[in-house]
Amino acid sequence: MMRYIFAVVLAMLSMTAVQAQRMLPKQKGLEINAGMLSKEISDNYYLNLTLTVNGKNGNYWIWGAEYTHQFSGYRDVQIPLETYTGEVGYSLQLLGDARKTVTLNAGLTAVAGYETINRSEAMLPDGSTILDKDNFVYGTGGQLTLETYLSDRFVLLLQGRTKVLWGTNLKQFRPSAGIGLRFNF
């Protein structure tokens, strides 16, 4: 009789969906993001690799590295502008359902890095000289992220981001939009 009860209980448990817990404190995630800085995505884009460590209530710490590539036009020459930055920050959950299937997070980061103009060459092909120099940059960044779980380990991210950088000869205010994928482990 005990075998039959055990078999019925096991059968009933297998019929219900089992959901793993999400956003557990101290759980880590590795995410990769790509996006555009302007309407011409082929020329102006960013790539980002980020490590996240979950805190309480759906909040998490952010440690990231980013490469930004864009072009600036001068007469008939396209001048490449590249920025390499690292960022550290914290993201707060603004909205989310009970199962954390869809969440909206806002983050604030500190940013530091290096930017190069025309791959550190001051002379252009037409003989003009670029007066702006390569610089170390620093500043702050903000992001608004819509996150949805594809499974208990994979998260799809839609991001709107901006950075405000000092120490640069280029634009200080740098908005961007992108998409990413996070793997929680």
Topology, element by element:
Blueprint: H1 2-15, E1 28-36, E2 45-54, E3 60-74, E4 77-96, E5 102-117, E6 135-149, E7 154-166, E8 173-184
Antiparallel strand pairs: 1-2, 1-8, 2-3, 3-4, 4-5, 5-6, 6-7, 7-8
Pfam family, one: TraO
Keywords: Signal
Organism: Compostibacter hankyongensis
Task: Looking at this protein, list some descriptive labels.
185 residues; mainly beta; 8-stranded antiparallel beta barrel; Conjugal transfer protein TraO
Describe the structure.
The protein is mostly beta strands and 185 residues long. It is built from one helix and eight strands; from the N terminus they run αββββββββ. The protein has an eight-stranded antiparallel beta barrel with strand order 1-2-3-4-5-6-7-8. It starts with a helix and ends with a strand. Pfam families: TraO. This is Conjugal transfer protein TraO. Residues 1-20 form the signal peptide. It comes from Compostibacter hankyongensis.
Low-confidence stretches: none
Task: Say how many strands there are.
Answer: 8
* Strand percent estimate: over 45%
Percent of residues in helices comes to under 10%
Give the N-terminus to C-terminus distance in angstroms.
42 Å
User: What is the strand arrangement across the widest sheet?
Assistant: 1-2-3-4-5-6-7-8
Number of helices: 1
What would you report as the Rg, rounded to the nearest angstrom?
A: 22 Å
The global form is: elongated
* Overall mean pLDDT: 87
Element-level helix/strand string = HEEEEEEEE
Give the biggest sheet: 8 strands, antiparallel, barrel
Structural class determined from secondary elements: mainly beta
